[in-house]
Amino acid sequence: MGSTGHGPLHGVRVVELAGIGPGPFAAMLLADLGADVVRVDRPGGPGLGIDPAHDLTNRNKRSVVLDLKSAPGAAAALALAERADILVEGFRPGVAERLGVGPAECLARNPRLVYGRMTGWGQEGPLAGTAGHDIGYVAVTGALGMIGPADGPPAIPANLLGDYAGGSLYLVVGVLSALQHARTTGEGQVVDAAIVDGTAHLTSMIQAMLAAGAWHDRRAANLLDGGAPFYGVYETADGQYMAVGALEPAFYEEFVGLLGVPGTLPDRGEPAAWAELRERLAARFLERTRAEWTDVFAGSDACVAPVLSLREAREHPHLTARGTFTEEYGTVQPAPAPRFSATPGAVHRPPARPGADTAAVARDWDVPDLTPAPTPAPTQEER
Q1: Are 120 and 133 in contact (CB under 8 A)?
Q2: SS3 assignment for 190-218
Q3: What tens digit of pLDDT does each residue of 182-202 get?
Q4: Nearest to 6 by CA among 83, 81, 80, 59
Q5: Which residues are catalytic?
């Protein structure tokens, strides 16, 4: 069975050549928006080594298993590409071409195809052929160097900043933009989505402030990086934390009033007084628990929030009221985003199990030559 009709991308067909990291997440987002995503898995199981039943980045997709290193496998992948609107791959540069499923071969079969390429370093440049991961990509763009304490090492933001923000989201914007062009002109194209490019693009405002002399090129010395005491994180009496974002004067006034620091506080407009102001605020936060401070600031415009764990976030009353998390197929997971008034997305399939949908895809996409590939698994190609 194909797309259920959920989401604005209903009717769009996507082929995902299986990989790890930002490619699968980008394809999940397309699937959440209603696209019929067929994931081409490799023989021998998933590359990430977790139970496919728990891999939420494969929800709302269907899976076939093809050995792209074999002639029949590559031919079947090309047959899928011929019937698709978008193809997404995350191999190192040149790998898809060596397998016979590169842009030239796919666009020759389907001139309207949008061929999305997801890599860390991009398709060209001195590092294009080398291995890498999120941490290295965000390091060279300057983004990692902005995060963390002044007197300590940079803080690693999991793989959210590079893989998913600088990678997946830019790939999705790119392929959907190219799809609009293809539907208008009949001309497909290749989208080169590099994590280094996307992550650098995310720093546009900071680069502008740096050029204007409004940003110091070091950690914890600026308005938005923890340098300002009214935009930071404070420990509470029970070893938890509260996040403060009282940037505007009116919000800061409400924050200070509710916090109840005795005496006169240093002028927040004087960076030279920030160290003393931070000490005064920190001492006050240590007098109560996170739960107590949460109650104090609840419903106010002080811009203060508790710092929650992943499990705690699922129970936050605002997120609960909005349905930000949903339980589907026995797993609590983030609901599709963003939201649409006329064509809402939904979780309508559990994570795809490798090869489980071969017969249905062969029927729905009219590709009768889809067959399970033999084992053993080939070596994992790094993106």
Answers
A1: yes
A2: EEEEEHHHHHHHHCHHHHHHHHCCCCCCC
A3: 999 999 999 999 999 999 999
A4: 59
A5: 133, 163
